[in-house]
Amino acid sequence: MMDLNFYSLKATGKTIADLTSAAPLISARTAVNVAWPNDEDDCDRLRTVRQIDDAGLLPVPIFAARRLKSKKHLFDLTEKLRFAGVQGQAMVVGGDPSDASGPFNNTMDLLRTEWVEKYAIKRVTLPGFPEGNAAIGL
Predict the structure, then answer these.
(1) pTM recorded for the entire structure
(2) Residues in the chain with pLDDT < 50?
């Protein structure tokens, strides 16, 4: 028998309608990673997080280090995401841009701040690329 409890979900503003329509088939409070695509801004991500939370699922924002403009941007965005329904989980990635928008060049730069402690983030996940990632030369 297949274990259907072992999967990961990801949503963007463009895919949220499909996810929310499938939500009744998904176990309550299942984690859903909220991607940070090039063509969506912080407001789009906040709206996606709210819809995931409203659907009874657990939004897990992906923080792309190289997309953050400053430490203030990281902290302000985290505050807004918490208000929108994020509860102590985050995924941290370097992000696809080759040049950083601010002080964070990679995941470790972001994790070296007091961010995890300040916002009581209990679970930080990191990505794996078993099939490679052209954006980072894998």
Answers:
(1) 0.88
(2) 1-2
